[in-house]
Structure to design on (214 residues):
């Protein structure tokens, strides 16, 4: 696997397209557990990234591109999403440094970095009914697959499946964080919208790498 900076920006554009099509679905999830603005915030943020795609793609390293991406996300995304995503990309920039190309091990390390950063910044853990319930199992299972020597294509399928399994697992969880935690039923019976949009991003990442980077 060889994922370049410019290719990562192309992946971002794929995410923006995918999320843009699911406004009604994601908003319906959020209306049941929150204030109904999750899709709007995420979509606005990704559309801003698309507007700046050409500029982002000119960066030579993941460090410089992720720092610019983080600033855009933090300024464009409303709610807590901007802070969480921005923090994750700032931490990833420091992790990857001056590398211009990401391999399987770097991707696994980046996803683990996202998990740790978002848990720390959001004061959340697996089982709290948040995007972490998608990201944590996806990161762990992908890392385990890579470390076991699994074929890259199969490992990406593991990543994609674990992402959606994690998102769907939030349906029966009681919310510990987020607006759903203030409801009488604490969101039980409803899938967390943040977990869904994270699963969509990881699915797009796995599919993009499968089609373009192996």
């Amino acid at each position: 696997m060889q994922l370049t900076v410019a290719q990562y920006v192309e992946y971002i554009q794929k995410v923006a397209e995918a999320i843009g099509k699911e406004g009604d679905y994601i908003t319906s999830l959020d209306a049941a557990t929150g204030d109904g603005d999750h899709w709007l915030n995420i979509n606005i943020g990704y559309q801003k990234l698309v507007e700046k795609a050409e500029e982002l793609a000119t960066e030579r390293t993941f460090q410089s591109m992720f720092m610019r991406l983080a600033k855009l996300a933090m300024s464009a995304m409303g709610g807590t999403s901007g802070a969480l995503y921005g923090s994750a990309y700032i931490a990833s920039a420091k992790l990857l440094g001056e590398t211009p190309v990401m391999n399987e091990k770097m991707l696994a390390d980046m996803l683990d970095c996202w998990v740790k950063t978002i848990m720390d910044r959001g004061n959340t853990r697996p089982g709290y009914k948040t995007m972490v319930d998608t990201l944590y199992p996806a990161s762990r299972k992908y890392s385990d697959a890579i470390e076991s020597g699994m074929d890259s294509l199969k490992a990406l399928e593991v990543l994609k499946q674990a992402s959606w399994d994690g998102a769907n697992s939030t349906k029966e969880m009681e919310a510990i964080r987020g607006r759903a935690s203030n409801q009488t039923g604490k969101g039980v019976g409803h899938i967390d919208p943040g977990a869904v949009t994270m699963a969509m991003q990881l699915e797009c990442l796995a599919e993009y790498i499968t089609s373009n980077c192996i």
Remarks:
- The longest helix spans residues 193-212.
